[in-house]
Specification:
The chain is mainly α and about 130 residues long. Helix content is about 65%, strand content about 0%. α2 packs across α4, α2 crosses α7 and α7 runs antiparallel to α8.
Length: about 130
């Protein structure tokens, strides 16, 4: 018996598939841990402050809203402008790919199923690309 196709990107379906807000927070912890240890990510890690608390908070808040959960980013941090927030950084294809590698690593470590992982990485490629300056 085949399973019905899963639906992502409708309402909070993506957030629920991942496991809710706590799962997003755990994913972001894994994401920044990967960024701190993967050799491919050292250039993007160096673009962040030593203390990642604010980066974790912003990414968690953004991803929860982006996945269909409560949209708290604007009230906490102001309007979302992904390119604007990264305009001062020298981001090219290598940095974009390192960011996506960190996310893929975090998704793997969290045990996210292959279908959801593929969906999330495909969807995150667009905002990651928007950060490029070169």
């Amino acid at each position: 018996m085949s399973h019905p196709p899963r639906v992502y990107g409708v309402g909070d379906s993506t957030l629920q598939a991942l496991g809710g807000e706590a799962a997003v927070a755990a994913l972001v912890e894994r994401f920044y841990a990967a960024m701190s240890r993967l050799p491919e990510a050292q250039r993007i890690r160096a673009m962040h402050l030593d203390d990642l608390s604010e980066s974790r908070d912003k990414l968690t808040t953004f991803l929860i809203g982006w996945m269909g959960g409560p949209k708290r980013y604007r009230e906490r941090f102001g309007p979302i402008s992904i390119p604007g927030a990264h305009r001062h950084l020298d981001i090219g294809p290598e940095e974009r790919d390192a960011w996506l590698l960190c996310m893929a690593t975090a998704l793997d470590e969290q045990g996210v199923d292959a279908e959801l992982k593929a969906y999330l990485l495909a969807q995150l490629r667009h905002p990651a690309e928007m950060c490029r300056r070169r």
